[in-house]
Specification:
Elements (H helix, E strand, L loop, with lengths): L1 H17 L6 E4 L6 H13 L8 E5 L2 H19 L7 H19 L12 E4 H11 L11 E2 L4 H12 L8 H10 L4 H13 L1 H8 L5 H22 L2 H16 L24 H11 L21 H15 L4 H6 L11 H28 L1 E2 L1 H12 L8 H9 L2 E4 L7 H10 L10 E6 L13 H10 L7 E4 L2 E2 L4 H14 L17 E2 L8 E9 L5 H22 L5 E5 L6 H10 L6 E2 L9 H14 L4 H9 L7 H8 L7 H6 L1 H4 L4 H20 L5 H11 L9 H19 L5 H8 L13 E5 L8 E6 L16 E8 L2 E8 L13 H25 L2 E13 L5 E2 L5 H19 L55 H23 L6 H6 L1 H10 L4 H20 L1 H7 L3 E13 L2 E14 L5 E9 L9 H9 L2 H9 L8 E7 L4 E4 L1
Parallel strand pairs: 1-7, 1-8, 2-3, 2-6, 4-5, 6-7, 9-10, 11-18, 12-14, 12-15, 13-14, 15-18, 22-23
Antiparallel strand pairs: 16-17, 18-19, 20-21, 21-22, 23-24
Helix pairs in contact: 2-3, 2-4, 3-4, 5-16, 6-8, 6-15, 7-15, 11-13, 16-18, 21-22, 23-24, 28-29, 29-30, 30-31, 34-37, 36-37, 37-38
Length: about 1150
């Protein structure tokens, strides 16, 4: 093992040096191999050979990767310019190459550091857009259109317009035939068309050709014969000759219509031509069970009556011998999944109709693109290719120009390339010759090919490694070194995934054999892989088991933080829904755990965005009672449930807006409610008067600002979420596509901003984690399915097959249920099974990507099922199912211990007893900067509130300092003192200043105010009294909003801080503390401080009355934030 390790490490080192030579290569680099460093080194080496840096083009697949490569190259050049020689050996190679590159750059006056744009590093999409812009006529664009991130709505429009051609005489027959084929289900046909348009780059060039039924039949024949040939290699001549006499005997004992009866005259080795498939299927029927295992029982049903004991014994011996050859059963099982070419004629006939329909849909899509002024990425890539060649396949002027300019191409993440991207590379390198000083360098890891949903095809990597790209031969280089993970993690990955991955590379099945790699780090005692079995009892609900899984993940997080100082932790899942329970549990019960959920939490789930959605719907539909009530409940108005009922509860049919105009109805509300309702009514009346005079986004933003919505942004991330909402409306306005319904669709595609303080704990999908690394990786949801829909079937399935070095096409149409022949496999079902096999192979690669993100610790968490017989098994087609051979023992040990937990108790309160907490502005008013006349005030029911109307800017600023400081004191008490070091406050200065600017203060006063707030908070955190007030206490609460009816008047109060103190003798005292942010001298005398505090005694007495029902002694106090002193009253 040591010798093999040393050999592979030596090969790795040799290949890294070879990769810098002047030739074309394809490099296989495993996870953590440092391929970005290798790409940087090659780029720096090539800079020494070109006449201009623009002659080198590097292509990556994400903006993040492109930015990282650019930064890495520039950083290397800057360090070399400053003579900062690194210590690491591989960094010294980069340093030496940078020095030489700078020397050349200085001679040729490139000024790379001053002009980094000369480094031509593109994403594949930005390169396509760049090419299309250079040849607007050849690309058919003219003016460059916008690129839609999500073109689903455009595809839907095109599909609808295509079906509408039913009324156009020239296309009636095509649309009618297609509709008849799907039993006149127009919605289904529209859905199928939309899915085909998404992937049109894969089939359009085929659909534009005339359908040749004979060619399709021949291609299918070739595939079947290819499969039979591979089966014959396993079930070879020797095995067949042994079976022949037994098979003839069994067939002779069965009626002629029995499938095994085909073997009566079997005397020669089975041929592998397509017509012999029924014979192969008869052999499978004889030897295997319905579950595709070797038969254990022998009976007359398969031709062995009980009286023929000798034949039965011989057949039993043959089956036992077959058991010892594990690959035979899977090979023979394939025969039942192969299509019978004699039953495929009907399938070919509809393909011509579908091809015509798809061409019509593509034409309609182009018209939709033109009307919308935007296109999708597929169109950009297609048009870029068209800009490089004319209709006769000859290079355009642009292609000839680029052929002169481009000397070297570097392609990162090559395993993620799609057929259209390979075609683009062929066009860019068309005419390149061997030894003409131009090179193509591709690097990637086929084991990390996980983007099939973006049309990536790992088979293209295998093909390029074997045959090159176009006319360019690529020398294959293999790297083995992993610089990321510790040996314990690497060894587990090597051992486990060698069994999970396919046994050999297979282009057709997108299969990649596992390539082991070598850890270069020294081992650590704390490193390794841990399994956390969760066993779901027979009587346990899925929700309860998922809750236990979430609790296990939280325990892992807490333990990891206890063992390390701020470890970098990632929770990775295949599907966003697998994080739902975990995120919910942390939000409710572990607020001290800050985390970043990267594109996990839906933007529409944030309360501030829900309020904006309700506002938009209400303003566009005055009869929408639900959204109008939501608007009146929102913080900018804040009606109580009692007032809402008084307004709408007595008339269930009138619109809320009409009820708001009815003074008799309004009089039923409390005085507070009347004031609030009158305020928003005036704003809405003005909004309706200006509706239609400006675009929707601007109009809605104006209404929201008049409602003082900006004052309702309690959290710093609320600002980002609101900006995302209005950016969505802006985009819809620009494309002239706004409607409340379309807004709902687009908002569901957006995600809430992650917590800025949670960078040490990140939650994301595995695909999002690609290219990242973490100290600890937790993989929950291993036992959960991804929940894909089996209804998402494409209209046509296409397969390109290479026959004698020529690419042939196989197409198969979607089969409605009423046209399926369950007795045989159709071409569509065969191609669908092939796709399923590819999907399973990719699932293993996705799991590999997740595991290789871990540097030190990898935690596996998954739910297995306890069966009625107490056996434990994973759910089929899950990651746990993939890993079961390796993990089963851990679950069995858990089951034997009897550690299967009882169903977790439901801690959620009955929804019928739930009353939502009212969060609202103390005084609804138009922001001062928007006021054109005084706004009616609200009776002051909250003496400590700083939201009273103030004309003086200084007074307003002092009030906002108090509001801001109160907000952070609330957060500190919520999260706990350990989560709020002084350094964190200082880091939040920009956020504080931004909030103050939103309140209408100028830049300099806002900066000064932020500093004052930080100074007061720092004093509090450093004071003994401040730490005692803010630390965790029994029944602790902060900014507690309470409502009390006094003399038929509803009054609202907010208590800054309250808790119960338990004394040594067991007695308890209820503390009620009010924060005051008045600026005081640090050496103020005790009598003077007491005098100031007594001014607030009446206010605190009101608060005390809210807690008299508890029967506890009450201690009132004022906490002066600016000096960190507590004064009991």
């Amino acid at each position: 093992m040591t010798a093999a390790r040393e050999l592979n490490l030596a090969t790795d080192e040799k290949n890294r040096q070879r990769a810098l030579d002047f030739a074309s290569f394809i490099v296989e680099a495993p996870a953590g191999a440092g391929k970005t460093e290798l790409l940087t080194q090659r780029y720096l080496k090539l800079l020494q050979t070109v006449n201009a840096p623009e002659e080198i083009i590097a292509i990556t697949f994400t903006n993040k990767a492109a930015a990282e490569m650019r930064v890495r190259i520039l950083d290397s050049l800057i360090k070399a310019a400053n003579h900062e020689k690194p210590d690491a050996e591989h960094k010294q190679i980069t340093y030496a190459l940078s020095l030489k590159a700078l020397e050349i750059a200085e001679k040729k006056q490139w000024q790379l550091i001053e002009n980094p744009a000369r480094l031509r590093i593109f994403t594949i999409d930005s390169l396509c857009a760049h090419l299309a812009r250079q040849m607007p006529l050849m690309s058919r664009f003219g003016a460059q259109p916008r690129v839609a991130e999500d073109a689903g709505a455009l595809y839907t429009q095109a599909a609808e317009h295509t079906l509408a051609l039913l009324e156009v005489a020239a296309h009636t027959d095509v649309v009618k035939s297609a509709l008849r084929y799907v039993d006149n289900n127009a919605e289904q046909l529209k859905s199928l068309l939309v899915k085909m348009l998404e992937k049109r780059d894969q089939w359009l060039h085929h659909a534009q050709q005339e359908v040749d039924e004979a060619a399709l039949q021949q291609t299918l024949r070739h595939l079947v014969e290819q499969e039979l040939a591979s089966i014959a290699q396993v079930f070879n001549t020797r095995l067949q000759c042994e079976l022949m006499p037994l098979a003839r005997f069994a067939a002779s004992q069965l009626p002629c219509e029995h499938s095994i009866a085909l073997l009566r005259d079997w005397e020669n080795t089975l041929p592998t031509h397509a017509e012999a498939l029924p014979m192969w299927q008869s052999v499978r029927e004889l030897l295997l069970t319905n579950e595709d295992g070797v038969r254990a029982g022998i009976s007359k049903n398969i031709g062995f009556p009980p009286e023929f004991k000798i034949e039965k014994a011989q057949f039993k011996s043959f089956l036992e011998a077959l058991e010892s050859i594990p690959e035979v059963a899977p090979a023979l099982a394939k025969t039942k999944k192969l299509p019978n070419i004699a039953h495929t004629q009907e399938a070919w006939q509809i393909i011509s109709t579908f091809s015509q329909l798809l061409n019509l849909a593509v034409a309609q899509l182009w018209l939709v693109f033109q009307r919308a002024g935007e296109v999708d990425f597929v169109e950009i890539a297609t048009r870029a290719t068209q800009a490089l060649k004319n209709d006769f396949g000859e290079p355009t002027d642009l292609a000839l120009k680029l052929d002169y300019q481009i000397q070297h191409l570097l392609v990162d993440e090559f395993q993620d390339t799609s057929p259209s991207q390979i075609e683009l590379l062929k066009q860019l390198t068309l005419g390149w010759q061997m030894n003409d000083q131009r090179t193509l360098f591709c690097v990637g890891d086929p084991m990390q090919s996980i983007y099939r949903f973006r049309k990536a095809n790992v088979g293209l990597f295998i093909e390029a490694a074997k045959h090159g790209i176009g006319d360019i031969h690529l020398e294959k280089l293999q790297l083995y070194r992993n610089n990321r993970s510790y040996p314990a993690v690497v060894n587990w990955i090597n051992q486990t995934f060698a069994k999970v991955f396919p046994v050999a590379d297979d282009i057709t099945q997108s299969a990649i054999q596992y390539r082991p790699f070598i850890a270069t780090k020294e081992d650590a005692t704390s490193a390794g892989v841990q399994v956390h079995p969760i066993i779901q009892r027979v009587d346990e609900t899925n929700e309860a088991a998922q809750m236990r899984e979430a609790e296990a993940v939280i325990e892992i997080i807490l333990q990891a933080r206890a063992n390390e100082v701020q470890p970098k932790i990632a929770v990775l899942v295949r599907s966003k829904k697998h994080l739902a329970q975990l995120v919910s549990l942390i939000r409710r019960h572990y607020p001290e755990i800050a985390f970043q959920a990267v594109e996990i939490e839906a933007l529409e789930g944030r309360q501030i965005v829900q309020d904006l959605l309700s506002l938009t719907h209400a303003l566009h539909h005055r009869a929408d009672r639900v959204h109008w009530l939501s608007v009146l409940r929102a913080p900018w108005c804040g009606l109580t449930l009692h007032d809402l009922h008084a307004l709408a509860g007595y008339d269930l049919y009138a619109s809320i807006w009409s009820l708001m105009q009815n003074e008799a109805v309004v009089q039923r509300l409390s005085a507070d409610g009347q004031t609030r309702l009158t305020h928003v009514r005036e704003i809405f009346a003005e909004a309706f008067a200006t509706q239609g005079r400006m675009n929707t986004s601007r109009w809605l933003r104006g209404v929201w600002l008049m409602l003082n919505g900006s004052a309702c942004l309690w959290e710093p991330r609320d600002v980002i979420d609101v900006q995302a909402f209005f950016a969505c409306l802006d985009a819809l306005d620009r494309s002239n596509q706004f409607s409340p319904e379309r807004m709902n669709i687009e908002i569901t595609k957006l995600f809430a901003s992650p917590d800025a303080q949670g960078e040490c704990l990140q939650m994301m999908t595995i695909h999002k984690s690609k290219g990242l690394e973490f100290d600890t990786v937790i993989l929950p949801g291993l036992g959960a399915t991804t929940g894909g829909s089996n209804n998402d079937k494409p209209l046509l399935l296409w397969e390109e097959v290479t026959i004698e070095e020529e690419t042939q096409l196989l197409a198969a149409p979607y089969l409605p249920k009423n046209q399926r022949n369950h007795a045989s496999v159709s071409p569509y079902e065969y191609l669908e099974m092939l796709e399923n096999t590819r999907e399973k192979n990719e699932a293993a690669r996705v799991l590999y990507v997740a595991a290789t993100r871990a540097e030190r610790c990898l935690h596996l968490v998954g739910i297995a099922n306890q069966k009625a017989d107490d056996s434990i098994a994973p759910t089929k087609n899950t990651y746990l199912d993939l890993l079961w051979e390796e993990l089963a023992a851990h679950y069995e040990v858990q089951a034997k211990r009897g550690d299967i937990a009882n169903t977790a108790a439901n801690t959620e309160a009955d929804i019928a007893l739930f009353t939502p907490r009212l969060v609202r502005l103390a005084m609804p008013q138009v922001p001062s900067m928007l006021q054109t006349q005084p706004t009616p005030g609200l009776a002051n029911t909250q003496p400590n509130s700083a939201t009273e109307k103030m004309q003086d800017d200084t007074q307003r600023l002092q009030a906002d300092i108090g509001t801001l400081t109160h907000h952070y004191l609330e957060l500190i008490a919520q999260h706990g003192l350990p989560a709020w070091p002084v350094t964190r406050l200082i880091a939040l200065r920009p956020a504080m200043q931004h909030w103050l600017r939103q309140q209408g203060h100028r830049e300099m006063p806002a900066a000064s105010a932020a500093d004052k707030s930080i100074a007061m908070l720092t004093t509090t955190l450093n004071s003994q009294a401040g730490q005692w007030v803010l630390q965790a206490h029994t029944l602790g609460a902060q900014e507690l909003a309470l409502t009390r009816v006094e003399k038929n008047t509803v009054k609202n109060w907010v208590v800054d801080r309250t808790f119960v103190e338990t004394h040594a003798d067991g007695t308890q005292t209820r503390w009620i503390i009010d924060y005051k942010t008045v600026e005081l001298s640090a050496d103020i005398s005790v009598p003077a401080l007491n005098t100031i505090a007594l001014q607030y005694a009446e206010q605190l007495q009101h608060y005390a009355q809210l807690f008299t029902h508890e029967g506890l002694p009450i201690q009132k106090a004022i906490f002066f934030v600016s000096i960190g002193r507590l004064v009991p009253l």
